[in-house]
Amino acid sequence: MMILLMLLLQTTPVAPIVKGTALPPPGSEEAQVMAPVAALLRAIETSDRAAALAATLPEGTITVTRIGPDGAPQRRTLRWADWAAQLTPEQGPVAEKQGTPAIEIDDHAAMVWAPYTVTVAGKPVQCGYNLFDVVRGAAGWKILNVTYSARTEGCTS
Known about the structure:
- By secondary structure, the chain is an alpha+beta fold.
- It contains 4 helices and 7 strands; from the N terminus they run H-H-H-E-E-H-E-E-E-E-E.
- The chain is 25% helix and 42% strand.
- A hairpin with a 2-residue loop joins strand 5 and strand 6.
């Protein structure tokens, strides 16, 4: 009987949030982590190099992984400044729609994992998953690194 009482006292009065099932509520720590992610996605849509660099840390990198034409895995890594220099307007509006993220936070480090689809002029051109390494410093949360998978098959808008 005592064990049952102890177990009942340990239960949480609110159901836990299942990771990756909803966007974080405004003002939460998760929302703060997502702020630079949202800023980077807006910068991509507007080809705003300065905004992209403001959301990231200069020592960080962005890495794409994909399958090459020969079927072998390929990987390309760039520093943020080199990546931002290539940020140019496409033929038609570019949008990167990100799915529901899974967010994990420990102290001053966080990770965001989410599916994405890139469209140009409304047509899906690339999809995969984004993995954001986000760290908190004196200026708040910033993206240190992004690694993402990229494929062109099976993408939906």
